[in-house]
Design a protein that fits this description.
Blueprint (H helix, E strand, L loop, with lengths): L11 E5 L5 E5 L5 E4 L6 E4 L24 H26 L3 H6 L2 H13 L3 H17 L6 H18 L6 H14 L1 H11 L4 E10 L5 E3 L5 E2 L2 E2 L1 E3 L4 H4 L7 E14 L5 E5 L5 E2 L3 H7 L4 H18 L3
């Protein structure tokens, strides 16, 4: 006989994200979409099964007597009927709990809404709408063309980056690091992990690939205590995929990984390897980059061509 699970019995889950981070929680009656705190990707969590865990029945030895076939046959018929009923009503509801909602939600509307929020500088709202558009587009590939799915992903990457922008100039953060680390290096490391780790910064400058494989921002330089601060952009994988044999003007964002003093007394800013994002939404870019509109438009359009040609992710 099929037994339904009691609502008071929680069912935990452990799901390993693509980046290796383990997500833990409790399954709900409806599906969940958990966001990985490490790589910010969404992980689909199945809902709680409506059926209780099967428990073994005690083994009994039937007495040796005349076999009565009527009772077992009736029990078998009733059990089969219950299975059919459960299969027709409970299982589809469990596996497709969001079908009514999915029919109502239009990926196009979510995409338009997310694009509008980006243009208005409402980056958190843009993330919310574009995440839903991305989820439904992946859950039902027929709801959006491949080009639209790529567009959603590119806009979502930009929205997430801009929603986490550092709220103070980067050179001020380095000066805080220098002053605080002189007093207590461990205190600075704790402060960085709490306030700055994973926060994003946007650069608009000409980028040059040097002979040693490093990347240099031609116009972005600042000094601390009379010494230049180095941007360790060579670890940002996005830059390795771009045609930068000749210097190009870029508008891109990255996330902070570390700020520390290294050999020779030089302060170095490191960035997360997979965090590089090209800005291709002109209205959103104009809200974080104060350069002439014609110049900004030219850069954004060129980067959009790169995204489409190189399938940048």
């Amino acid at each position: 006989m099929i037994r339904l699970r009691q609502e008071s019995a929680p069912v935990p889950y452990e799901i390993v994200c693509q980046c290796g981070r383990t997500l833990r929680g409790v399954r709900q009656p409806r599906y969940q979409v958990a966001t990985c705190p490490n790589c910010h990707k969404q992980v689909f969590v199945l809902p709680q099964s409506p059926f209780a865990d099967p428990s073994p029945s005690p083994k009994t030895t039937p007495p040796v007597s005349r076999i009565d076939w009527k009772t077992p046959a009736l029990a078998a018929i009733l059990t089969a009927g219950l299975i059919v009923v459960a299969f027709c009503f409970l299982v589809p509801a469990w596996l497709d709990v969001e079908k009514p909602e999915q029919e109502e939600v239009q990926v196009q509307e979510l995409l338009r809404g997310g694009t509008k929020e980006l243009a208005e500088g409402n980056f958190l709202l843009a993330v919310k709408r574009l995440e839903r558009a991305d989820f439904f587009a992946q859950a039902n590939p027929l709801s959006a063309a491949p080009a639209e799915r790529r567009q959603i992903r590119q806009l979502l990457r930009q929205a997430r980056l801009l929603a986490d922008l550092l709220n103070e100039p980067l050179d001020d953060v380095v000066r805080h690091a220098v002053e605080l680390s002189e007093q207590n290096q461990q205190e600075w490391q704790a402060r960085f992990e709490k306030s700055y780790l994973g926060r994003s910064v946007v650069f608009e400058d000409e980028v040059r690939r040097q002979v040693d494989g490093r990347y240099q921002l031609v116009g972005y330089r600042f000094f601390v205590r009379g010494r230049p601060v180095r941007l360790a952009l060579e670890h940002v994988r996005l830059l390795h995929r771009l045609p930068l044999d000749d210097p190009k003007r870029l508008l891109f964002g990255v996330r902070l990984a570390a700020i520390r003093k290294e050999a020779g007394g030089t302060w170095v800013i490191h960035f997360q390897e997979e965090s590089g994002v090209l800005l291709t939404h002109l209205a959103a870019a104009s809200r974080v980059c104060l350069v002439p509109e014609d110049q900004l438009k030219e850069t954004v359009e060129r980067q959009q061509e790169w995204v489409e040609q190189l399938s940048l992710k």
